[in-house]
Amino acid sequence: MADPIEFKTYAYHDIDAGLWRAWQQKSEKWGYYPFQSALWARSGVADYNHKTDLFLLAAEREGKYLGFFPYKICWRLKGGCVPIKYCLPWNDVMPVGFVIAPHQTTDFYAALFKGFFCALPRWHILISGLSQTDSPVANHLQRHFQATRIAYSTTEYIAAEIRGFDCYDDYLSSLSTKWRRNYRKAKRRLLDSGAAQLVHLTTFSAADLADTKARIMGIYRESWKITSTDDSANLMKAKAYSLFSNLVNEYAAIGGLHIMILILNGEDAAFAVGFHQGGFYCSFQIAYKEKFRKDSVGFFVHLENFRYSMENGFRRMNLMAYQDYKAHLTSRTESFLVHKIFGEGLVGSALKLLSDILRR
């Protein structure tokens, strides 16, 4: 009979280098995307001023890690007057949730989730991070709720993906005739003519990183994206830039950063930034200077970024979101769930009822 699973809670400042490394390495080995990793979680709170609210719950057996759950505890006023105790992800931009060993038995997942929830402090509302829809984590998490009669709701997030192609030419053949023609036309005008050069950056010194960030922001400031009302994605906003800058530093340190810059007529015209781990590539930001819009530099950089991911053996490229134009780039999507869980007792029941009413 296997030894029981042990659950240990670590305050943020007690997470040492070995635990950070184990959490990150397991996320890579177990098939999680960069935005579900320890590096993403740490980048999202590097500038957070209340780190004493942050904790990591780790599951171990016989000296081996089996799962991780980062959370923070905070009180918020509901309706401006009712104090509610929340258990939340560290960061609300692509929130990192459970990272759990795959390919386990039903009994294992049942014991793991029972242990996780018993080890957490009491709360009124718990919001999990992202879990892939129909993954073992999402499926067994919901089985746990059903078995224990815990009330919950889910929110779905859809992201476009590029996957399932043997080579870049196969991918191009999947596009419409119009989009293939537009790509070839842009390639002739930009690269084949010698007017433009594509620069791929994958290794960086500290000075390289600082210079590359400055080049990226030089392009970004002249792009349409500065008018975006999405404060979590607009790099002109402090919170979004902090996450971007921290991620660049973190993934550069492990060789998981890829930056592509398109130079047109001697001037930086467009960029793409991506992070990768364990065969998964995430396209984080693409932007171009408005004055080069007519040259189709944004469209061209998108497709060349796909070329890079395929030619370098990445199994999946996740585009981090789904906008209408991405339907022209791929017919594939990946779905993720965030679970909102209501605590036991009168407060939890009342909050669930209120949530149901507001969702109608």
In short:
The chain is of the alpha+beta class. Helix content is 37%, strand content 29%. The model has no long low-confidence stretch (mean pLDDT 93).
Class by helix and strand content? alpha+beta
- The overall number of domains is 2
- Main sheet record: 14 strands, mixed
CATH level 4 superfamily of the largest domain = Gcn5-related N-acetyltransferase (GNAT)
Give the count of helical stretches.
10
The H-and-E topology, N to C, reads as EHHEEEEHEEHEHHEHHEEEHEEH
Strand runs, count: 14
The proportion of residues forming helix, as a percent range, comes to 25-40%
| N-end to C-end Cα span | 48 Å
| Overall geometry | elongated
Q: Which residue ranges are poorly predicted, with pLDDT under 50 across at least 5 consecutive positions?
A: none
**Cα gyration radius (Å):** 22 Å
Which fold name fills CATH's third level, the topology of the largest domain?
Answer: Aminopeptidase
CATH architecture classification name of the largest domain? 3-Layer(aba) Sandwich
Q: Which CATH class of the largest domain is shown?
A: Alpha Beta
The average pLDDT score comes to 93
Strand content: 25-35%
Fill in the keyword field for this structure.
360 residues; Aminopeptidase; 2 domains; 14-stranded mixed beta sheet; 14 strands; 37% helix
Explain this structure to me?
There is one protein chain. The chain has about 350 residues and is α+β, with helices and mostly antiparallel strands. The protein has 2 domains: about 160 residues, Aminopeptidase; about 170 residues, Gcn5-related N-acetyltransferase (GNAT) (Aminopeptidase), CATH 3.40.630.30. Strands 1, 2, 3, 4, 5, 6, 7, 8, 9, 10, 11, 12, 13 and 14 form a 14-stranded mixed β-sheet that branches. Helix 3 packs across helix 4 and helix 6 crosses helix 9. The longest helix has 16 residues. The chain is elongated, with a radius of gyration of 22 Å. It starts with 5 loop residues before the first strand and ends with a helix. The mean pLDDT is about 95.
